[in-house]
Amino acid sequence: MNFDLIALDIDGTLLNDSHILTAAVRDAVREAHRRGAEIVLCTGRGPVNAMPVLEELGLAGTMITHNGAATVDSASRRVLHQFSIDPAEVARFRDYCLQGKLHFDLNTPFEMWIEDLTPDAEKMYGLYGARPVLRDPNAPLPEGLVKFTLFGAIAQLDAVEAEWNAWTHGLQHIRSGDYFIDVQHKDASKGHALRQLASLRGIDQSRVMAIGNYFNDVGMLTFAGMGVAVANSPEAVKAAANALTRSNEEDGVAHALREFALA
């Protein structure tokens, strides 16, 4: 085994476009685990809808969720570390979305709240296995928030992103998928969380492998001794990686593991 710690993004990487874990990918991940690598899902998802993927792999353990804003233990459902954000700072983004009639959700490590549910949003949550809870819009924003997520059409989010880029604020916003913008703590990232976990395990970064496909994966791809981008990644993500593999529709994770980790 060439690596002691292997970080895997879920959507667009581990799963195909139908959100299915193929047998080839599952078997390669299990083989890497059997040979001694710790497998860590490193995802923009929250723990609740990331854990079923980990269970389908037949694994348990530490997961880096919410783009690195919450690191949790899947067995005990314990939060090992989180980057909380001030509700007062989130309020500006919420107000913007309310004025523009844009769909959003509010996340603590294990909870997701919404204030309305459009047919498109309901379909999206179903695809990701998420079960948001409807909250009273007049209630104070929850404490312990780690992520505010905006969902919409690509062109719509392109315009929002351009406008938010001109804002001055103490948070960060990152495109975590074509249809999502995540707002979170300025220090939260998959790369920072993966570095922290490797340090805790006493694993040198040369013994860390990461596979991803989108802009929120760049930090972990550049930290890892071997950062691999799947073929369906944007060009900027490919440029950040050490190597490329096949797309998520072609079992890219399985091919990367067999080429770089299991060889």
Could you explain the architecture of this structure?
The protein is α/β, with parallel strands linked by helices. The protein folds into 2 domains: 152 residues, Rossmann fold; 99 residues, Hypothetical Protein, Haloacid Dehalogenase-like Hydrolase, Chain: A, domain 2, CATH 3.30.1240. The strands form 3 sheets. Strands 8-7-6-9-11-10 form a 6-stranded mixed sheet, covered by helices on one side. Strand 13, helix 9 and strand 14 form a beta-alpha-beta unit. Helix 2 packs parallel to helix 10. The termini are close together.
Average pLDDT score: 97
For the record, give the distance between the C-alpha atoms at the N and C termini, rounded to a whole number.
8 Å
Helix content: 25-40%
Strand order across the biggest sheet?
A: 8-7-6-9-11-10
What is the number of helical segments per DSSP (H or I, 4+ residues)?
10
Protein name: HAD family phosphatase
InterPro entries: Cof (IPR000150), HAD-like_sf (IPR036412), HAD-SF_hydro_IIB (IPR006379), HAD_sf (IPR023214)
Task: Provide a quick synopsis of the model.
The chain contains ten helices and 14 strands. It is of the alpha/beta class. It folds into two domains: 152 residues, Rossmann fold (3-Layer(aba) Sandwich); 99 residues, Hypothetical Protein, Haloacid Dehalogenase-like Hydrolase, Chain: A, domain 2, CATH 3.30.1240.10.
